[in-house]
User: What shape does this take?
Amino acid sequence: MANEALGKAKQGVGSVVGSEKLKSEGAAPELKGDAQKLSGDAKNTTKEAVDKTADALKKPL
Assistant: This one.
């Protein structure tokens, strides 16, 4: 979230002051933050699926 927030802040400041450089510098950290979030979401989804499968295997037939 920090990378995403930093990127958005840089882009916002760049827009206000009319700096294309700041706007473009803000895009990279924002994209990095987005990628980190997606990676975390994928890990959580995988863990939940594994946990459900493990629980199902523990139940008696």
In short: The two ends are 44 Å apart (CA to CA).
